[in-house]
Design goal:
mainly alpha; single chain
Amino acid sequence: LRGVARRVGVSHAAPAHHFADTKALLSALAAEGFRRFLATQRARQAIAPPDPHAQLLAAGQGYVAFAAAHPALFRLMFASRRPDYADAELAAAAGAAYDHLGAGVAAAHGGGAAPPVDVLAAWAMAHGIADLANSGRLSLVAPDASGETMVAAALERALGKPCDPGRRLD
């Protein structure tokens, strides 16, 4: 906490007034990350066509865009064991993001409850593409493709909408 205080230019005791320890600070940061993550997805959906497939694709593109814009925060949210996911604020923010995904998958499949395997498939594709893009590995598969285009194409396939094999992924 002292290091954080030094970097933001406040007294070394200031963070202790808000956070009990580093785990609490990282939990709050991850919770804020999930709120911004969801806002990024919703912003993409706001400019997408209203049909459920287009909305799910836009959410996936927002997922990748968030990861690219905030790689350290993305890693904290999804790869770190340091935040406390039992923290009510973090659990609520992460749960809202997951519920948004589930609702999008359900809508894309015609409503009702989304089969967990379909939610997992959509999540794994968007997350995997975001992680590959952040690590510089996406270019091994598609040198000219952006992560956004790749996630849209992959989700189209997962939703049973095959991509045009001649379509450029850029």
